[in-house]
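This protein record is not my work; I was only asked to verify it. Would you go through it and say whether the fold makes sense for this chain? Here is the record exactly as it was handed to me.
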Amino acid sequence: MNINFITDIFDGCGDEFKRTDLPPGSAAWAYQGDEIQSLLFICPCGGARIRSVPVRGDRKWDWNGNETLPTLTPSILIVGECRWHGYLTNGEWRTV
């Protein structure tokens, strides 16, 4: 599934940081000033919860620097109400 960038991932978000109106894999970049800090996304599993993967700082994923077709490494593992494990490679969510 391809990543689907949206303008404001928190617009219409409830207290539980969920967006049931967006398709899985939707995403937005989070900025501090004019620098990208993390990728916010709706879990590709179909869960509506907004997740975050940091691309700056001490504990971060490696990012290829491409804002439209990002690649993040290592893999992303989501545990909790859903369980998804996969990669974001060239703008495509790939399940392991």
User: Anything to note?
Assistant: The chain has a mean pLDDT of 93. Residues 4-95 form one domain.
